[in-house]
Every structure is written in C-alpha cells, then in structure tokens.
Amino acid sequence: MFKRVLIANRGEIALRIMRACRELGVEAVCVYSTADKDAPYLKMADRAICIGPGPAKESYLNISRIIAAAEIADVDAIHPGYGFLSERPDFSQACRDCKIEFIGPSPEAMQALGDKVDCKKTAKDNGVPVFPGSKDAVEDEEEAVRIAGEIGFPVIIKASAGGGGRGMKVCHNEATLRSMLRVASQEAQAAFGNGAVFIEKYLERARHVEVQMLGDKHGNAVYLWERDCSLQRRHQKVIEEAPAPGVDRERLKKVCESAAKMIRSVNYAGAATCEFLLDETGHFYMLEVNTRVQVEHPVTEMITGVDIVQMSIRIAAGEKIPFKQDDVRIHGHAIECRICAEDPAEGFRPSAGKITRWEPPGGPGVRLDTHVVPGYVVPPNYDSMVAKLIVHAPTREQALDRTARALREFQAGPIKTTVPLHQRLVENTDFRRGGVDIHYLERLLKQG
Question: Is 292 a known active-site residue?
Fold first, then answer.
C-alpha cells in the first residue's frame, strides 16, 4: 500500500478520497487554489499545498503545478477524483514519466475508452451494442450531411474527448447540422483541448442506464450492477438511483458482461462506468465510458457494500479485486440527489456566497457527502455542487419516502440551493412510477 497520496481535486470528492486514505493508513496531501484557501477540509489533510490562483486552468487543470506539488510532498501516487484532469491521458502519462502511480487507468487504456471514437471501436470489437453513426471523427460538413442521410435525422454531434453536454448539439435537419458542426467543434476545443467531434443517431425518448465496473492489474474485471441517471437537465444528472427500476434483468446482465469484457480487453485498472441509453423497445446502446470514479458512485456503494474509492486505491497499489462476480449482490435501493448552489426559481442562476445556515439531514439510511460547514463560502470559480444526499432503504418506495423526509430536513442559507427541485421530483407521480426519460425534467420545467 502507498505511504502518501496526493489528491488532485477539491471539494466533496477531495474529502471523500481523504477519508478513504485515512482508513487505509495512507497519508493524504491536498492541493488547493487561492479560491479554496479557507476550505475547512484542508485542515484534515496531512499536508496542503497551494497550486495557483482561482481559475481552474491556472491550478486544478495545470499538470505541471500538480506534478511539482507531488514531487515536493514526495508522494507515491495521485488520485484525480472526477472532473478536472481525471480523464486526461496526458496527465496519466505525466505521472508515469515522473514515477508516480496514477490512481486510475493507464494512458493507453484511458485513450482506448475515454476517447469516444476509439471507445466505439473497442465496444464493437467486444460485442457491446453501439449507436449508428460515424466510425471516426467528422471533419467537414459534407461528410456530416452524408452520415446523417444514412442514419436519419435527428442526429447528435458529440465531442470525442469529453462530456457533460459541452460540444453536444442536437440537429433535426441539414441546415442545423451544417451550422452546428463548427460550433460544437469550437466548444469541444475550448473545453477539452480537442476539437474532434462525431455524429450519432439521436433518441427522442430514452433512459440513461450506466454500469459500474472495476478492473485490476491482474486481468480481472467485475461489474457492480447499474444505476439509472435519466433525470437530467442540460445533459447534467440531477438524481441517480440503483438499481434501475423496470429494467429486464437478464438483458441487463448480458450488457454488464459485455461491458466487463471490454474493460478486460484494454487491461483497464481502476473504476470505470460504461454509460448506455435504453430505448423504448428495451434495447441498449453504449454512449461512452467514463474512465474515473463517478459523482454518483455512492448509490452503488450503498446497494453493494463495496467502497469504490478505496478499491481504486487498492487496485492502483497492485492488489487484486478481493471478490468474484458472483459475490456482488444487490441489497435494497439507493437514491442520490445532487444539491447545487443554484436557484431553480431563477433559471438555475448560480448562488455563490457565504453559508451561515447549514442543517443537514440525518437518521437511518441517510448519507451526506459534502465539504460544507457553517461559514463556508461557495466560490464562483467551480462547479456549483455543494452536497450529495444519498438515501438507502429496503425498497424503492421506502427509499423515495426517506429521501422526501431527508430533503424536508435539509436547511441551507442564505444561498439558494436545488433542494426545492428535488423535493418536487421525489414527489412526482411519473418519477415514482419509474422509467422517466432523459428529457422528462426539461419538459417538466417548461410547464412551470
């Protein structure tokens, strides 16, 4: 096991990794920007090192500064968390070049699965169902129009090197496709440093179901079953749950097995998530593979008992996955609400500032992953998520009721949060029935 790990991230996930290190007897070094200099979680680190000003490109996205901090602290490994540099093959390669273990996949495995064009090729080679679309990156309008003509409108343009809705454009006709192709490429270049885009068939109504996987350095790969992430706004997940309600378990098992096969084929070591869309006929199509720990990993932890963050550290240290596929059982139901410092009543306007009232919920089956304490100042520089409320219960209905109760207890101010939106959603009849599609929330919000 490592002696010392540097956490190349901030906020909730930095604290989550820090706690995992503590339980493993590993020292935790945390980097921070000047915008986070007063963050309370830094006091829990064995050492904290400033890596630059508030803008992420000058701190959390600056590879040379993070590597320099790692060398100063004499760490054995770096955990990237999620976001920032977590899916950058050049960061994984920089760690390798400096003889620092990257807690995640090798640069080669990350490229094979993290780049969406390469990932589709890997998926096809391993029998994983993929969307009809371009085989490679699309470079000009005429090629894009030809592909769209073959697969039929609507189509979606996607960034090859990233996600989160950036570089993503839905096109219902040729004129929109021509105008959006360059816009999508420019957005992708700005967000990921790679302007490559590709085209896929777009499903008007679909559910988002993803499979949590672990691979180790000994050729083993297991899946920890699935999560449903269909409640989304602007391609950003709002509520996640596990297991997915109303999904054919036998078909899902085959999808999980094919995803694990794909992980093995690239010698993947670490946590990964294979994301799928499920159409109205029950067929799965692979979206992408996230080559990192996901924001929503706690819901899987709650139903399986597997500590995914600790497992990622153990795997990077060379340990084998200590259980077999048949050992992974589903226990009960879990739901996660992403609580953001935004005002849903004002078009989700960001609500940065000092939090003076912070009364988190508690009770049986309630978990809150957060770095916030009373007096914490939400900076305007980064993602607005301030907490993840995770609830577990024996059944989905009980989990929904428990989530509703926990949300009623949750008090934060004077900043605005998305708690009222979550209260509305967990009481929503359609959501409670199960099976809402990825555009349901946007339609609901338009209704007012």
Answer: yes
